[in-house]
Design goal:
Shape: globular
Strand content: 15-25%
Strand order of the largest sheet: 3-2-1-4-5-7-6
Helix content: 25-40%
Structural class: alpha/beta
Length: 229
Amino acid sequence: MQPEFDAYRDNYVDTVEQSISFSGLSHDFFQKSKALMIRDLLALRLAHHPKPILLDVGCGIGALHPLLSGLFSSIHGVDVSGESIERAKLENPRNLYDTYDGERLPFADNSFDMVLSICVMHHVPVAQWTRFMAELTRVVLPGGMVCLIEHNPVNPGTRLSVARCPFDEDAVLLSTRKMRGYMRRAGLAEVATRNFVFFPSNRPKFRALERRLHWLPLGAQYAAIGRVQ
């Protein structure tokens, strides 16, 4: 995947914008939606950690990180794309970034309070999904959280945007049921999925309704979470 994503260092956002243009929504809207979901998850699962340490696996150019900076004491990001990591370093100098080989994360066991991986697993070869999940789990402290945000294959708009995106040509989308299975087999406890992006707005009244509808498997994306034992 490295050469493929190296090529999108300078036009990643533009490429995403083109793939979702039919929706009338912007890349910034979806980034804000993810940041708000992550804020909710921290309140639900890591409220006892007021400033947790985050590892973002497959962070790309770090486009989401400015929206997360107030939620974590430090943000670490890794990606297989060296070009993307170089841009992430330039744009987020307070964070820590590094490349990795896509197989073993370059960190000791129990290093982070939370590991996050956004729209990455669908690019990992299916035969490596079990190992990928095990690596995410390995680097999180007991009681910490593993969180993966993925496209919802049930949502027709999501499937259309994936079909229109050139770097999603290899994507194998995971259902929420399949994702929960991989998380449980990795030894994670309290596994759950929360669906989101039901509405074309992040205004508080829509966010409140979205929280109530999190069980409904029709949102454009979902967050899968589990606790490390």
